[in-house]
Amino acid sequence: MGAGHPHGSPSDSRARLWVAFGLTFVVLIAQAVGTVLTGSLALLTDTAHMLTDVSGLAMALVAATLILRPPSSKRTWGFRRAEVIAALAQAALLLVVGVYSAVEGVRRLFDPPEVPGSELLVFGVIGLAANIVAILVLASSRNSSLNMRAAFLEVLNDALGSVGVIVAGILITTTGFLRADPLAGLVIAALIVPRAVKLIRESIAVLMEFTPAGLDLDDVRRHVLELEHVIDVHDLHASMVGTGLPTLTGHIVVRDECFTDGHAVDVLSEVKECVAAHFDVAIEHATFQIETQSIRESESDDVTHP
To answer: Where does the chain cross the membrane (predicted)?
Structure first.
């Protein structure tokens, strides 16, 4: 016996992603030109970061399109995990940029090159202005999926990177402190790496089908066992197919007579109500198999004596 719910419908965030992608692409070209003209590490780091943003937003757009495709008999969940894969790829790109920035920043601290501060300042302001617009566009939908969260974090990190470029430009222009450039690169790296690692962990948790955060399966089992007629719960599994789509499955063992006196249907209804009422995570798709004690014992015998 099963208890199911319609699969959650993902929101369509493509319009916002297109605006952010367009802005980011224009700034990427401007900053690439600026990097060639100035030779700045901070600007080079921010440009590389911007390149990952453009790539990440492109992947986010593809994922946002794929997850809207309906499920089929061959793809029962559709492409709901495309957004998780895209988020993982974006986070991996961010991590590579962050590590490179850290290594190059340390190297340039000992041998800072000449960097024109005024040009650096101009390109930093251009990048920051575009990033602020992109942040405003993506902010309202940043929690709708891992994909949108990754896109928002990339743009936010880029804005912080642009602030670092601006500060470095001001310091070099006013004081001639050339180490401000590699220091800004190191600050940008420090901002990128922790967020990238966190997003990678969250994406891997979904792909590895770990229990969704906030859902304690031991607590679920304890609550279900307190229901009348339930004598055992086994094969309890929970995972996250995609953002906003947690699943829960389990076998509920009841007394044999429950299948003759009608209590089996009541138990199924009570289990559904219990799962819906006691836990913070809203279970989008739950499936429970109701089985008798004799079936459970026969399954145990089969495992013991193959």
So the answer is: 17-44, 50-70, 82-100, 120-139, 151-177
- The pLDDT score that the predictor gives to residue 68 is 75
Q: Which runs of E-coded beta strand occur in the chain?
A: 230-242, 245-254, 285-292
Give dist(CA 221, CA 194) in Å, integer: 35
94, 96, 101, 104: CA torsion to nearest 10: -170
Q: Count of CB atoms within 10 A of residue 128's CB?
A: 21
Q: Could you tell me which of 46, 42, 8 has the C-alpha nearest to residue 27?
A: 46
Residue 7 has pLDDT above 60, yes or no: no
d(CA 135, CA 277): 36
pTM above 0.90? no
- Assess contact for 164 and 187: CB atoms under 8 A: yes
For 231, phi and psi rounded to 5 degrees? Answer: -115, -10
pLDDT band at 12 (very low <50, low <70, confident <90, very high): low
302 pLDDT exceeds 60? no
Query: 80-105 b/e with 16+ CB inside 10 Å = b?
Result: bbbbbbbbbbbbbbbbebbebbbebb
Pairing, β 230-242 against β 245-254: antiparallel
Cα distance between residue 101 and residue 98, in whole Å = 5
